[in-house]
Amino acid sequence: MPESKEKLSIKKAGVWIQEGILLITSILFLTFQIHPTLILELQPSNFLMDKKFFLEFLSMPGGLVDWLSALLMLLWFSDFYAAIIIAICLWLVALLTRTWMQTLTGVNSIHTIHIIPAGLLLVLYSQYDFRLSIIVALIVNLLFLNLIIRTAPNSLAIRLVLIIVASIILFWLTGGAFLLFALLCSLTELLIRKKYITGLLIVIVAFVMPYIASMQVFLVTVEYSYLHNSIFEYFAKLRFVTYSIVVFYTLALMFIYLARLNRVQNLNNKLAKKLKGGKYVYYLAWIGGTIFIFSGTFFIAQKTHDKVIKINLLVNRYSKENNWKETLKLVNEYSYVNPLMLSQANFALFKTGELLNKAFSYYQAFGVKGLIMNYEWSATWPEQTSEIYWNLGMINESLHWAHEAFELRGYTPWILKRLGMVYLLKGDYEAAKRFFLNLKKIPFQKKNAEELLWLNQNPNELTRDSSNKHILSCMPVEDAVLLEKSFMKKMELLLEKNPKNKLAFEFLIASHLMNGNLKGIAANIPRFYELNYTHLPIHVQEALLIMGVIDVSISYNELKKYIQPYIYNRFIKFQQILQNRQQNLNNAKPELQARFGDTYWYYFMYIGRSTLQSEVQHGYQ
Amino acid sequence: MDISSLSRKKLFPLLVWLVILFFGCSISPENRTDILSADRSASIVPDYSGIVIPYNIAPMNFRVKESGEEFFVCIKSKRGDEIKVNSKSGIIQIPQGKWESLLKENIGAELIIDVFVKSQDGRWTRYKSIVNQIANDPIDSYIVYRRFKPLFNIYKNMGIFQRHLGSFDEHTVYHNRLAEENCVNCHNFWKNGVDRWLLHMRGGVTTSMLLVTDEKVQKIDTKTKFNGPVAYPAWHPSGDLIAFSVSKLILFFHQVGECRDVLDQYSDIVVYDIHMNTIVTAPQISSPDRLEIWPEWSPDGKTLYFCSAPKIEEFENLKKQGELAYDEIKYDLMRITYDPINRTWGKVEVVIQSAKLGLSITEPRISPDGRFLLFTAAEYSQFPSYIQSADLYLLDLKTNKWKKLEVNSDKVDSFHSWSSNGRWFVFASKREDGLFTRLYFSSIDSLGNVTKQFILPQKDPSFYDTYLEIYNVPEFTKERITINPQVLAKAALSTTETIKAKLDPMVLLNMDSRK
């Protein structure tokens, strides 16, 4: 029995309200919980508005979707903008899913259930390494699926040809993601239209196509050919979610098949009669479903939210924004540390003038690797290593890691700018120009690039910028080769060029502290006064006190002029606790950690022991 | 409005204007009488002026680097149709078919390029003709090179490509995304053909040599008790043996200038027999007291040229303990006679002492007729790609005299290769910016006279301005490589079909006696 116009309009409104809720809640959840621009820290947009660049994408299955997604990611100016773009994509998934279900069932009042795939995709966004191209590929495939179902001719042969041609196009445009399209077309033929041979043919063609394409057409591996941009490409984490998306569409089709069976239809009719006055039943289902789907989605998203990576990415972002206070706050609050976070924190400490006063308030478990990351960590986060070397004035090292980043991440504004700037500072203007010209090809970077190109033509103007002036003053002039890869030697080298390179100096002292090289610290004391320190930093004073204990030839009177009384008094208390525990380090540890965990003494006794070899380990290969 | 209603007064000027416009546009600048003449040639990029070109080269598209509103270029020779190209942007793209016919009809003749530029005031200027020479000798049809972004430690996108020199077609021979993003290098072809060739791979299970013989791919693990993975191959003219160097490479970084540098902790030369799957060497080419590298066979197969330097320990810096005087490591050019029938080695002989040249000699490549040896010389090092002073030198093996070539620049010029007829060579140069290597070609006559170099033509003449990948290890081939990259990748990834090279027992005996 056809539904009344009033009922239909209520149901239509209900669906639109649900999708509106999806849009709004997704935007809110992404903006305030996920902070989607953090994703750019992990997967920056690799994009040039350039014909050759575009054609390279077209030479790969799924390349067009990759290109489009990279372009969309350039529009992620803020968390809010990014959230809007992602939320629209999720809404499109819901809309196209609903349209597909409505077309197959002939029922115009599908609600709630069609939100599920969008919800699951939103859950995947809580992982930060989930790629936008997977969603875009799904949208394109659902769009084609709807078009095929709505326009498919009755002629079996034409329909078959149409589906196969669409599969080929979709494979080229979206990559392995087209398999979902092929699977659903095949199941439609098998279950709905009862064309078994056609259905099987579609499946066979679809599953053979990526193999043949990878062998004969595209230069990609078989694995890439099948998986690229499909939901299964994102497989490492949250497997149940990735499976659920494919299972959803398959099960939905099965249910539609069952619903079309007479028996089920009869049962439906009986049920409908029993539940007469169904307006309320509809409201109940709508409200219950909405609550269930949305609360379920946000519950899973919240539960699976990768907070560790979020903190890492936040620390990265704050560092890039020179927001040192927030960087330190985050690292301090968070119990988990790694060389990336520590190097950012130590750099932030330097920027706030506290490196040698507060470094050991943080868990310096990685020794000098926490100042500049070692090869393994740098190879994952090359931009960060390049940045620290840049600030040190060691621009060949900065160049090295910027090139590694270029190989790893491609054409991003930061990398092109950094490479161009390094070559510009080195006086290699032609090389710099090439990077700036490429920067100009990135949307929204034209003005920036033109300014840099102007600077490249007028290098005398470089010193107008104080940071460039500083880097130029720190850059080594005479060549040096550090075959031993020693961190300390690098800092000494920079100090030879510019004794006022404070970052190099503090890193040198910090590395002496972390390596337990007390003599190295003592030897550098005059430099503190040359650099206008009013008194020695706290950790240096703490180190001198340890030196006084270890080396009996040094009396406290000799050290007295360097040590502030309150630090000396603290040290006495530190020693008393040790004596009370009969110098048993294990017994004394809890109390010392509670009272002196922020001191160099505690680091020296407990943490430093495992990191003293860091200097040796700190190499490139 | 009816046209008849227009007054004659209004119609007449309109017609005159249309006639002027029509004829004005149709008169090509070369036939105009009101043209100005410049007393110099137009500046064009890339610089395709005063060069000798093969008749089978792709259209040499260029950009006119003169300010103007419109550009007209006429390319002509003694015979055949002139090629006329109009351009608003100054980018001159020459039609392939017309270019091919013009060059083929005028082998040995001059190729004249006339450039006309229309200034803002509407006047045309004719520049002095650019005169190039079409050579009598063709160039090999293909060039094979490795292409990637400037490389440090990480490589994600690296491939070996083959470019048809008569057109702009480039196809992939192998791409590292097909096999675990491995490092791929040292492609080398027997006598510039594609019947027997090889390439090397580094990284995980793919570390091996892929040997292609008559379209059949074999993955060969060249590591033996004596040596690690091999590099820098040189095919024996018989096609049965390949000489390699085996070395332990250390990458290190400078704080000023070119960032990267490498040195060999040790290196030796070994010879691989492709039929016997055996690696052999001799004390003369793998001395523990010397670093031997860069082997190259003479065309008769009876002499092996190579480079050699004293062992690394001799460069330990006496002034600064523990430091190495890496910039004093200079390689001599050596040779040794070889009996291909009995497979015996003669005595090592110094061809050019590095001290005499004051430079380190590397990359010796002998012309197919055996007359010339082209080598790279740089301040130090066995790997000149990172030494900006690296230049190409030509040694006349008949007179034993050498000369620095005119094609050199103040930046790196290295990695050269001969065409099969010995009348062309290609080399990789960083002359444009000191960073990105591009491929340059030059002709050479029977007396060793070399002509001005020209860059590998590209469809878009502005291509090199923004292209951020480098070309290196260019090798000429006469034919197209038809083997599917996937077949190479499959072989590279295979763990079951790897052929383990055997070490000649005599080498083991020698090793034992050294102990």
Poorly predicted sequence stretches spanning 5 or more consecutive residues of chain B: 1-6
Strand residue content of chain A:
under 5%
Query: How big a fraction of the residues of chain B is strand?
Result: 35-45%
SSE-based structural type of chain A? mainly alpha
Structural class of chain B: mainly beta
Mean pLDDT across the residues of chain B is: 91
Query: Biggest β-sheet of chain B: count, sense, barrel?
Result: 7 strands, mixed
Helix content of chain A: over 70%
Question: How is the quaternary structure best described?
Answer: heterodimer
Strand tally of chain A? 0
The rough form of chain B would be described as elongated
CA radius of gyration of chain B: 27 Å
Cα end-to-end separation of chain A: 75 Å
Unreliable runs of chain A? 613-621
Shape of chain A: elongated
Total number of helical segments of chain B? 6
Count of DSSP H/I helices of chain A = 35
Most extensive interface, chain pair and sizes: A-B, 43 and 41 residues
| Helical fraction of chain B | 10-25%
The overall pLDDT of chain A, averaged over residues, is: 88
What can you see in these coordinates?
The complex is a heterodimer of chains A (621) and B (515). With 621 residues, chain A is an all-alpha fold. Chain A contains 35 helices and no strands. Chain A has helices at residues 5-34, 37-42, 51-58, 63-73, 79-105, 116-124, 132-151, 156-174, 178-192, 196-217, 222-227, 239-260, 262-274, 279-304, 307-320, 324-333, 339-351, 355-358, 375-380, 382-392, 395-409, 413-426, 429-440, 446-457, 466-474, 487-497, 502-515, 518-523, 525-530, 538-550, 556-560, 565-580, 585-596, 600-611, 614-617. The model of chain A is unreliable at 613-621 (pLDDT under 50). By secondary structure, chain B is mainly beta. Helix content of chain B is 11%, strand content 42%. Chain B has six helices and 36 strands. In chain B, the strands form eight sheets. In chain B, strands 1, 3, 5, 6, 8, 9 and 10 form a seven-stranded mixed β-sheet that branches. Chain B has a five-stranded mixed β-sheet with strand order 14-15-16-17-35, covered by helices on one side. A five-stranded mixed β-sheet of chain B has the order 18-19-20-21-36. In chain B, strand 19 (241-253) and strand 20 form a beta hairpin. The termini of chain B are far apart. Classes of the chains: A mainly alpha (621), B mainly beta (515). Chain A binds chain B through residues 50, 214-216, 219-221, 224, 375, 379, 382, 394, 396-397, 399-400, 403-404, 406-408, 423, 428, 430-431, 433-435, 437-438, 441, 476-484, 493, 620-621, and chain B through 149-157, 172, 175, 177-178, 250-257, 259-261, 322-324, 326, 432-436, 465-468, 484-486, 489.
